[in-house]
C-alpha cells in the first residue's frame, strides 16, 4: 500500500506542477501596439519616451501599424547612425508583428534613412521571463468585489478535487491488485 500512496502523491504533484506552469505561461505574452510614423519636429524623442514607460518581457510582441513605410531590425550602430550595413530582417506590409523571443536589446528603424533621422526609430530592452514567484499586478478596484483570496482558493481547489476524483478509482484498482 505504501508504494501506491507514493505513486499517487508523485502523480498528483506532477499534475499540479504542470497546471501551475501552464497558468504562468498564459499570463505572459502581452502585445504592444506601435503607431509607426515620423514624429513631428516637436517630438523627435517620441519612441524613446514611449519605450521608457513600458516593461517588455520575453514572450511579448510588438505590433507595428504604419502606411507607406517599413520596419527594419538593425543593430546598435545602425540604429544610432540610421545607416543599414548588414542584411537584416524587415517588413513593409503595414501591420507587422515582431515576437520578442529573447532577452536583451532590440533596435527598430524605418527603412527610409530620412524617417529614421527624424526620429522614427525604437530601441527597447527585453527582460527575461517573469519570475515564477511574481504574481501579475492586481488592478485596484474601488467597488466591493469578490476577494482575490476566494477566487484563487477556488482555482487551486478545483484541479485538486478533479484530480482526486480521477485518482481514487486508480488507487482502488491498484489496491485490489495488491
Ligand atoms: C510643439 O508643441 C507645443 C506644445 O505641445 C505646441 O504648442 C507647438 O506649437 C509645437 N510646435 C511645433 C513646431 O509643432
Ligand atoms: C509613399 O512614399 C514614397 C517615398 O517616400 C512617396 O514618394 C509617395 O508619395 C508616398 N505615397 C503616399 C501615398 O504617401
Ligand atoms: C554607412 O556606413 C558605411 C560603413 O561605415 C559607410 O561606408 C557608408 O558611407 C554609410 N552610408 C551612409 C548613407 O551614411
Ligand atoms: C493587424 O494584424 C492583426 C493580427 O496579427 C489583426 O488583429 C489586426 O486587426 C490587423 N490590423 C490591421 C489594421 O490590419
CATH class placement of the domain at 27-129:
Mainly Beta
Present as ligands are: 2-acetamido-2-deoxy-beta-D-glucopyranose
Radius of gyration based on Cα positions: 25 Å
Give the tally of β-strands: 8
Widest sheet, order of strands: 2-8-7-4-5
Structural class: alpha/beta
Largest sheet: 5 strands, mixed
Give the number of helices.
5
What's the CATH architecture of the domain at 27-129?
Sandwich
**CATH H-level name of the domain at 27-129... which superfamily?**
Cupredoxins -  blue copper proteins
* CATH level-3 fold name of the domain at 27-129: Immunoglobulin-like
Proportion in helices: 40-55%
Poorly predicted regions: 10-27, 144-163
Mean pLDDT: 75
Principal-axis shape equals elongated
Report the order of strands and helices. Answer: HEHEEEHEEEHEH
Q: What percent strand? A: 15-25%
Span of the ends, CA to CA: 7 Å
Summary, kept brief:
With 178 residues, the protein is an alpha/beta fold. Helices cover 42% and strands 20% of the residues.
Helices and strands in order, then pairings?
Blueprint: H1 2-27, E1 31-35, H2 46-52, E2 56-57, E3 61-65, E4 71-74, H3 76-81, E5 90-91, E6 95-99, E7 104-109, H4 113-117, E8 121-127, H5 148-177
Parallel strand pairs: 1-3, 2-8
Antiparallel strand pairs: 3-6, 4-5, 4-7, 7-8
